[in-house]
Amino acid sequence: MTSDTFQMKSDIAINHIKELIMSGAAPPGSRITARVVAEALGISETPVREAIKSLVADEWLVLRPHVGAVVASVGLDNIQEIYGIRGSLGALAVELGGVSYTPQRIAEIDAVLRDCEPMVAARDVDGFSQLNRRFHALLSDTPQTTVINRMLTSLWSRTEGAKHGFRFVPWRLAESHAEHVAIRDAIVAGDYAHAARLVQQHERAGMNALLQGMQSQNEARPAGRRQETV
Questions:
Q1: Residue 34 belongs to what domain range?
Q2: Is Phosphoprotein tagged as a keyword (predicted)?
Q3: pLDDT for 20 beyond 70
Q4: In a domain, 230, yes or no
Q5: Given the DSSP bridges, would you call strands 61-64 and 31-32 parallel, antiparallel or unpaired?
Q6: Of 71, 96, 131, at which residue does a domain stop?
Q7: Could you give phi then psi for residue 64, rounded to 5 degrees?
Q8: Is this structure's pTM higher than 0.85?
């Protein structure tokens, strides 16, 4: 096997495991074994083991004694850290990527916002979540912000893989949509500094709502049971 072929199979395994996590098929705490992944993909276990090592390094997975690799959990402290980083990176993406917000991109943003309206009205969490990712990708996926976009994609996947976000606070959809519209208006006006501040405020508001929802859920749990993951 050439090194290129090995790397390709390792990348396939990485993408497969990430998809399991992001789809919810492998929730936090689920064990990921090289044998099962290798059988699912029809490849040997060696590149899968390398994939697992890479995902541990990127904190998608954690190693537990006597268990092996499991899907990482996202705790209260992690939520504050993740959303804080998302806000800072998202703001920087807007400031650096402003030159790439062409009329065509603005039209794509507007189309996403229009599609969001019925999702908000119906409180369609899954539909809105997909459009939410699309909206933020349009802000960060520019030639000037390729590194930022990769980092943000990983952070978004961490919370989505843990089945958090709007599922905890469906009432947040309308607020989030209004904040998206305000960000869009600032961008159209060419005030990227203001748009960047709005992005940070948007992420902070999302974090506070999620923490509130998580706290309410934990308080509603029967005594003796503790929520360990988010």
A1: 3-71
A2: no
A3: yes
A4: no
A5: unpaired
A6: 71
A7: -115, 135
A8: no
Is there a domain that residue 226 lies in? no
Last residue of a domain, one of 24, 54, 71: 71
Q: What is the pLDDT of residues 55-83, one digit of tens each?
A: 998 778 899 999 999 988 766 667 888 89
Residue 71's beta-bridge partner residues? Answer: 61
* Mean pLDDT for the chain overall: 86
In-domain check, residue 117: yes
pLDDT number for residue 225: 40
Are 109 and 128 in a shared domain? yes
Q: Are 56 and 108 in the same domain?
A: no
